[in-house]
């Protein structure tokens, strides 16, 4: 009988392969239906596009996806030296990029007065598959059987309390010298040293806790009947954080589904900038590069495009996202650049 790690590996690989294939099939099938409607029921173009989708998925699977998965499982260290997330990078290039390209091509199909709700289902499916692939890659180290902790090959960093023993203080073991004055001074020094050491230990613990892969907060730490409300689990928080991470990109692509925007030239910057923002998934979630990359590839370009869309088409996008992009850009410039100037280092400054 296969082990649980093998079963989990098979489930993850099947899910990722499904997320790779299904969006491509759906997007190209909708495009084929659009071509059939434009050609007044001609099925030749429809089946040609369907055959192209099957050929593309087969080629990508045999020559790119399967070899990549094989080499990652055999030589994961080599790939992690190049990028922390090679699978997500491959998915963005092999699935998200062609799907966005087909959506852009569909916006230029001459449909006359016929408007197909072409973008809602395919775009939602493409972004949902991308989010799920990101979740699968991030949740791999965790156990999914309900037990707290990580898999056996992942260890939690940080101190572990194994044994308690009462130890007398150092000052109690020192002799009293010169009527106790030197002893008091030594005791004060020892207390200050122990306090500073304790603060350094706590600081080191916090650093190790921050840099750890995950920490599980069990409901056993809190007494009383409503213990379930105190429980925290990084596996649950991982799902929430991943969807919030992609929320701005989802809203930008939704704007492209508005009819006036979809059939105008503004659809190109919308989808191009949305795809550029998806490249952030290649960076590890805890990487220091993620903040600056998010501002340069998402918030700043999205701010310019959203203001332009509001000026040209009206309120096709909520102003909440405009204020979000503006606030993120301003705070990034202030905290990362302006606070480094000498004028902000004076003691009189707030």
Automatic annotation (TrEMBL):
It comes from Astyanax mexicanus (Blind cave fish). The keyword Transcription does not apply. The chain crosses the membrane at residues 9-32, 44-66, 87-105, 117-136, 261-283, 303-321. The keyword Transmembrane helix applies. InterPro entries: Uncharacterised_FAM23-like_TM. This is Transmembrane protein 236. Keywords: Membrane, Transmembrane, Transmembrane helix. Signal peptide: none annotated. The lineage of its organism: Eukaryota, Metazoa, Chordata, Craniata, Vertebrata. It comes from the Eukaryota.
């Amino acid at each position: 009988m296969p082990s649980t790690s093998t079963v989990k590996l098979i489930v993850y690989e099947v899910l990722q392969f499904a997320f790779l294939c299904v969006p491509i099939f759906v997007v190209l099938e909708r495009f084929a239906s659009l071509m059939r409607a434009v050609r007044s029921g001609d099925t030749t173009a429809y089946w040609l596009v369907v055959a192209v989708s099957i050929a593309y998925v087969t080629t990508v699977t045999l020559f790119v996806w399967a070899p990549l998965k094989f080499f990652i499982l055999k030589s994961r260290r080599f790939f992690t030296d190049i990028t922390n997330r090679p699978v997500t990078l491959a998915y963005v290039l092999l699935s998200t990029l062609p799907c966005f390209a087909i959506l852009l091509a569909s916006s230029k199909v001459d449909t006359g007065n016929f408007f197909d709700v072409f973008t809602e289902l395919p775009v939602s499916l493409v972004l949902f598959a991308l989010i799920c692939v990101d979740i699968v890659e991030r949740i791999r180290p965790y156990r999914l059987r309900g037990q707290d902790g990580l898999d056996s090959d992942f260890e939690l960093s940080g101190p572990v309390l194994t044994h308690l023993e009462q130890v007398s203080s150092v000052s109690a073991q020192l002799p009293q010298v010169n009527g106790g004055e030197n002893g008091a001074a030594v005791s004060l020094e020892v207390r200050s040293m122990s306090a500073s050491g304790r603060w350094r230990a706590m600081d080191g613990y916090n650093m190790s806790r921050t840099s750890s892969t995950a920490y599980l907060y069990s409901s056993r730490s809190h007494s009383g009947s409503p213990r379930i409300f105190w429980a925290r689990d990084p596996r649950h928080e991982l799902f929430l954080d991943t969807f919030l991470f992609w929320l701005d990109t989802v809203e930008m692509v939704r704007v492209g589904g508005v009819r006036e925007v979809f059939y105008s030239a503004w659809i190109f910057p919308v989808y191009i900038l949305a795809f550029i923002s998806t490249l952030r998934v290649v960076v590890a979630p805890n990487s220091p590069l993620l903040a600056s990359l998010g501002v340069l590839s998402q918030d700043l370009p999205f701010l310019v495009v959203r203001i332009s869309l509001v000026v040209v088409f009206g309120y096709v996008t909520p102003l909440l996202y405009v204020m979000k992009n503006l606030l993120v850009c301003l705070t990034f410039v202030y905290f990362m650049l302006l606070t480094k100037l000498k004028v902000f280092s004076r003691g009189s400054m707030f």
